[in-house]
Amino acid sequence: MNNKLELLAPAGNRKAFDAALNSGADAIYLGVEKFSARRQAGNFTIDELKKAVRDAHLRGTKVYVAFNTIISDGELPSAIESLAEINNAGADAVIIQDWGVFKLVKRLLPDIRVHASTQMNTHNLEMVKFLEEQGANRITLARELSIGEIAEICDSTTVKIETFIHGALCFSYSGQCLFSSMVGNRSGNRGMCPQACRLGYSLSVAGSREEVWPTPGKHILSTKDLSGIKLLPELAKAGVKALKIEGRMKSPEYVATVVRVYRNAIDRYLRDPDTYSVSDEEINELKEVFSRGFTEGYFKDIRDSRLMSFDRPSDRGMLIGRVTYLDVYTGKLGLQLKHELCVGDEIEVWVSHGGRVKAKVDELLIADKRVECAPEGSKAVIVLKGKRHKINTGDRVFRIYNERLIKTARESITGAVSRRVPIEMSAFIEVGKPIELKAHVNPAYGGQRAEVTSDFNAEKGEKRTLCEHDVISQLNRLGNTIYEVDSWDITVGSGAMVPLGKLNDLRRTLVERLDTERVKAYRRTRVAPKKAQDELDAIMRPERTKKPQKPLLAADVSSPDQAVQAAQNGADWLYLRPGFLRQGGFDLAKLSEMAAEKGAKLALAIGNIIHQSEISALLALIESKRDYLDALLIDNFGIFRAVRDLGLPLFLDYHINNFNRVSTRFFRDSGASRICLSSELTLDQLAALSNSVDVETEALVHGWLEVMTAEHCVPSASKKSCEFCSMRDFYIEDQKGFKFPVEQDTRCRSHIYNSRELNMLPNTANLMRTGVGSLRLLLNRYEPEAAGAITRLYREAIDLITAGVDDVTPVLKKADRLFPAAETTTGHYFRAVQ
């Protein structure tokens, strides 16, 4: 067992858990029935969790419970009850996304360790420092970091850093994706992601003549799978303490295979770092158990088309050869093999002109003779059944099911314990004295001790006596336990005799006591769920709030012309969002003067993605322009930490996912004076939250909502020059005809927007009754005149309602005249997210 580089494995159900345990995981992460980012996995009941934790702890393996979704006020009592039960079950840590839950666990369940989920989107050192200050025990970094960035973080923190090492990559930054939430009402932030990024899309350019750009395949948001096995030395040297395998939705066979391969690799590296290498066989096993194609991804700063799996969003298996001929009458298919093929395997032929042909290898021939396996380099023949007319000579053949590999994996799931705990065992047997047995676990595995003394004495043997070999033979019967003896200390007096059955009983008692001692080492203070809920009730008590008579109107803009139009048409605040290719820069001196004339204030909007290398320039910009700014709009809690001492008011943006009153109060108490609440709240939830926390809240009410932020440049799929980006408006279109605008910022990150404009103009009165202090218009994708017109519509509606006129029909009619063809949505305000 090593503590230098933890191997963390996924388990979506008990079989996958056993696969991870038996294949050598140092720790296993799993979910309970609710509040897990993989709610569609089998997951565990609390009783199942208790047994899993005990089984893992006996083996010296830790168990972390993924509790990594955003949680509403109404769900917090149930969440705290579950967390108390998780604590009492002995889980070693909880993995958390929600800031409110994070703070509740630190306060109500202080014994359990808290790991910050990758859903927290931690991607710069300031974010790590902020989490460290709040008490995080471990942080799972965003996948979008290079090894150099990871090393910089590890060098500057005492918190243990964890990274994903293998498995699926999200297209968007984790915790920042609203795509499936807005399109299909299934939120990735709530554990219900349907993987919309794996579907097919076309890439088009808007303009006077719509143009569809060719791409290598239709799956232009589908990433390859991460495989960092060759980078183990670099990650270890960078300071990473835990390597995480993705896959709670994957099969037990996948878990068994991937964990075994990485276990062997880590052990090999730790034994001799200088000679570490990875064999082709290991890579092939990883490919065959599941692969969309592998990439080392952001570890190596890969963010172009090499990151993507354009032609296939699902398992592609391993290329094993090509077609040499097909007899369409007999179904015989000739293959030139690059790798061995056996009966029981399944293949897929990637035909030249579209589609795939699958086949199970029931019969395998070489030179017209049946064989069980055809070796690498051979010419083999299989017999196809069903459709085959599309196959052509030269088509590629992939193996998508390896019978022997899966058999090996299944044996590890149901077979004997593969990694045992070494112990020293001693026995003292003397005539006329009680028998004494002792066991001591190797200190590297915990060092627990147990002993047992018989309630009878050893007798003097008449016909037969015990020898040391006899005693060892009986005590070494540990096949159904987790232990193996690596050292003996046996004392057997002359002529002593003990019935072998009694000796076996003593051995079993000794093992049970040793099990108890090992489990005891992991125990923590129990927390009564009722007590935790009572404390939560006190924390959740609504604060006295001042309901605004008239909400402010904020305009989120990305060009000077938009800002001018919004101010001239009644915006109280201008959120200036620089950094997009098609927009110009801001002259803050001129804008500040203009805004003052119109009675508006300025806030610099700082995006949700700010890598460490970008922070110094950002801070310099703020310092140089602070005299022109009235506030900062922050969408990244690392930047929140970095700027909190500058003296400017701090507003929080919606990507921080404030979904409950505990998180909202936490950020209020940390210095935020205005908080934009989650765009996944209903109108009723928005009202309840706004009226329970004494802070100015904000709601998004109109415009193009960003649903994905990604490092990969979507238009790059077309393989055209980068100069095209600044001159065109792109969108992707799904198979139902919905078009999602795509925009690149100055760092070539992709920002994908919802296919429908958010429009709450008809519901302005309802919004004002919620007690929200600010209504925000997302105007950065509109032409300046349109941005001004939308601002004017909301200004008029707010003013009418404030004057006591709830009927804003004249404003709505004007909106219909100005934007007759607009297709809009009310988001989640009237439909609760799953």
Structure at a glance:
With 834 residues, the protein is α/β, with parallel strands linked by helices.
Walk me through what this model shows.
The structure is a single chain. This protein is an alpha/beta fold and 834 residues long. It contains 23 helices and 42 strands. The strands form 7 sheets. The chain has an 8-stranded parallel barrel with strand order 1-2-3-4-5-6-7-11, surrounded by 6 helices. It has an 8-stranded antiparallel beta sheet with strand order 17-16-22-13-14-21-18-19. The longest helix is centred in the middle third of the chain and has 21 residues, at 500-520. The mean pLDDT is 93.
Largest sheet: 8 strands, parallel, barrel
With strands numbered from the N-terminus, the spatial order across the biggest sheet is 1-2-3-4-5-6-7-11
Judging from the principal axes of the Cα atoms, what is the shape?
A: globular
Radius of gyration: 31 Å
Which percent range describes the beta-strand content?
A: 15-25%
- The unreliable regions are none
Through-space gap between termini: 41 Å
* Overall average pLDDT: 93
Q: Residue share in helices?
A: 25-40%
Quaternary structure of the protein = single chain
The number of distinct helices, counting runs of at least 4 residues, comes to 23
Question: How are the secondary structure elements laid out?
Answer:
Elements: E1 6-11, H1 14-23, E2 27-31, H2 46-58, E3 62-67, H3 76-89, E4 93-96, H4 99-108, E5 113-116, H5 125-134, E6 138-140, H6 147-154, E7 160-168, H7 179-184, E8 202-206, E9 211-213, E10 225-227, H8 232-238, E11 242-245, H9 252-271, H10 280-289, E12 294-295, E13 318-327, E14 332-337, E15 341-342, E16 346-350, E17 356-360, E18 364-366, E19 369-370, E20 373-374, E21 379-383, E22 396-401, H11 403-414, E23 421-429, E24 434-441, E25 449-457, E26 459-460, H12 468-475, E27 483-492, E28 496-497, H13 500-520, H14 529-540, E29 552-557, H15 560-568, E30 573-576, H16 588-598, E31 601-606, H17 612-625, E32 631-634, H18 637-643, E33 650-652, H19 661-669, E34 672-676, H20 683-690, E35 696-703, E36 706-710, E37 729-733, E38 739-744, E39 750-753, E40 757-759, H21 764-769, E41 774-778, H22 784-802, H23 809-818, E42 824-825
Parallel strand pairs: 1-2, 1-11, 2-3, 3-4, 4-5, 5-6, 6-7, 7-11, 10-12, 23-27, 29-30, 29-41, 30-31, 31-32, 32-33, 33-34, 34-35, 35-41, 40-42
Antiparallel strand pairs: 7-10, 8-9, 8-37, 13-14, 13-22, 14-21, 15-20, 16-17, 16-22, 18-19, 18-21, 23-24, 24-25, 26-28, 35-40, 36-39, 37-38, 38-39
Helix pairs in contact: 1-9, 1-11, 2-3, 3-14, 4-19, 5-18, 6-8, 9-10, 9-11, 15-16, 15-22, 22-23
